[in-house]
């Protein structure tokens, strides 16, 4: 993201008033629990999305991306982006424009925005939420609007739900806005309350690898929405507000005849328990014991929630065979990334084993990133 201020001046013919950054995230554990009012445990990455911006007073949001190219201009006053049927080449701009349309109710207005990202696209590291959050901070600062961060996270979630048409939960936006270095964020997705949980694998001689499986991750397709609808249907049949409220798993499974709904409930309920157990391990300083939690989560996502994909399964299997402590797919599923917890002195061996597993199958080589818990969204300049 070299010299974003200079690039802004070249793009818009005037000076940027500031640069804002919001990180991508990795969810350590707690997958598909967020929209079930459950618990999640994400942390922020060092990589993310940066936005150089300047205020406009004509009610227009003008957006350019250093990755996508082209310019998109849209009025702040408008309906939902999803209802306007934007073509695919403009889809990336729905996130900042949608964010601006939600925030206009709180007193923000137009802006010129230049976007830059060093997050790999399609890797499931929440580049969309990072873009929303960086845009939200920029618009609030430019227009002198103060919104506390938990509320801003909910507004960013609303922008993605209503404007983009993606029925995501609260986790990604909260992680991007609330995370702190050396910690994971325990988030209760029903109440919005959060707590910082110490998480620094390096102090225990461990490395958490993020593996971009290179299988593209697109959540606006129907599979993610179907999983959410199945969870909502199961909750309705069980007579609870959300699957987070299921206390007697055996009893709930006994009341559901549909085998698909039984599998979905089993994953969500046990995944919430895995989040609680993982928090206990981290607070006790037992980072190395997280491996078993990661493995159990992956098996549940693969077999009960049925959202894993061949590249993810291969990466996890190869890592474990090479001596990793544990691993699992992350994100919405059907593509994206895997995380692997390994002793730091074995990290190279684990990388090589995963790459060899891909080469054997003729797949595009995976990409690796050391996932270090980092700072949340902030103004850079």
From TrEMBL:
Its EC number is 2.7.1.6. One of its GO terms (biological process) is galactose metabolic process. Keywords: ATP-binding, Carbohydrate metabolism, Cytoplasm, Galactose metabolism, Kinase, Magnesium, Metal-binding, Nucleotide-binding, Transferase. GO terms for cellular component: cytosol. Residues 7-55 form the Galactokinase N-terminal domain. Residues 281-359 form the GHMP kinase C-terminal domain. It holds the Pfam family GalKase_gal_bdg. NCBIfam families: gal_kin. PANTHER family: GALACTOKINASE-RELATED, MEVALONATE KINASE/GALACTOKINASE. Belongs to the GHMP kinase family. GalK subfamily. This is Galactokinase.
